[in-house]
Amino acid sequence: MSTSNADPHLRKIIHIDMDAFFAAVEQRDNPHYQDKPIIVGGPPNSRGVVATCSYQARKFGIHSAMPSSQAYRLCPQAIFVRPRFDVYKQVSAQIREIFAGFTTLFEPVSLDEAYLDVTDVDGYKGSATLIAQAIKQRIHTHTGLIASAGVSYNKFLAKIASDMDKPDGLYLISPEEGEAFVENLEIGKFHGIGRATEKKMHDLEIYTGQDLKALPLPVLEQYFGKSGKYYYHISRGIDHRPVVNARISKSVSVENTFARDIQGHEPIMQTLTKLLDEAWLKLQAKGMAARTLTLKIKYHDFEQITRSRTFSSQITQLHGLTEVMAELLCDTRVTDKKVRLLGVGFSGLQPNADVVFQQLDLFERIAKSSLR
Ligand code: TTP
Ligand code: MG
User: Domain 251-351, what fold?
Assistant: First the structure.
């Protein structure tokens, strides 16, 4: 995208996504793996699942989250490799450093993926495509790995664009093309529309962006609740979500102000457990992990206190945090003072490699239940 004659409100967004990330790292580090079908994940004789596989393995129909046993049946000559998360984390840190060399406005969404807002980046003849090319080049020089890039004027389209031309892709969806592009897109390809929603949309005879666009906002809201508005906008190629710098957004929190003040250990713990769940989900959705857990209390007289616990390493599981919360609560006055607001927060955030661990765990559970 060039800035000349462009609408001053138009942004330039790049989405970067590494190709076959874990598998590409394994191929880079082991010469015997090059050009071969490589599967990273659990071994085939277990109930493990495929985390990812090389493009050579994809030809056999293998994909992420497939049971390893099924992958083995599809391609017995494939090489199964156990994941090395520490190495993936290191590479992830390297590519983030590279992004930071272009702009402070970048938002990692997982180990191998990030959005960059390059609207204000100087040079490169004002072209986001040239910036994307330079990022790909620098990633290759520094890590020996290949990334695909999508360039557009918002996050939704940039994400779709990065998938269009994989592997080693660089794809632009210009402001002139955006709306028509979404019209022709199959609903299943919309990022943020999972299997269940896709099915629901098919039941409503919505198959493409055009079908989605034909529905008035109140109808979408009736069928899809809060997401209705999001669908209404993206079907028109509109997405105002900002790129949020993770280094700026250093915490995640949720809080609840009560219609009526509450008091006593038990009702307060009940609420805190719920808030803890919500905050945890938010943290996971960001692909971040925290080191500090904070409890916030506002008493009926508006006195506000916080109590925190900082751990020596990243908090990797929700399990056990309720107990920590109960301990933090001991050092408050909830038994003799009414409470009007409770909050739970996570801070000391860092990108989380363990999200992937948990994903794997989740996939193992899915794979297990589908084997039953
Ligand atoms: P993706 O970017 O979705 O996949 P990919 O990089 O392997 O392949 P490509 O982008 O070229 O299509 O995910 C990044 C990494 O996250 C992937 O290498 C392994 C891990 N992952 C899982 O562990 N389980 C999953 O289900 C998915 C989708 C990814
Ligand atoms: Mg990827």
Answer: Dna Ligase; domain 1 (3.30.1490)
Determine the residue of 111, 112, 163, 365 to mutate for testing ligand 1's pocket, defined as the one with the most ligand atoms within 8 A of the Cβ atom.
112
Fold that domain 179-234 belongs to in CATH: DNA polymerase; domain 1 (1.10.150)
User: Tokens for 49?
Assistant: 């699942």
The whole-model pTM stands at 0.71
Tell me: the pLDDT tens digits for 117-143? Answer: 999 998 999 999 999 999 999 999 999
Q: Can you give the residue ranges of every domain in the chain?
A: 1-174, 179-234, 251-351
| C-beta of residue 74 within 8 angstroms of C-beta of residue 62 | yes
**Token match 């800035």: residue?**
3
Q: CATH class for domain 1-174? A: alpha beta
pLDDT 10s digits, 83-128: 999 999 999 999 999 998 899 899 998 899 999 999 999 899 999 9
Residues near ligand 2 ion, CB 5 Å cutoff: 17-18, 21, 112
Torsions phi, psi for 24 (to 5 deg): -65, -35
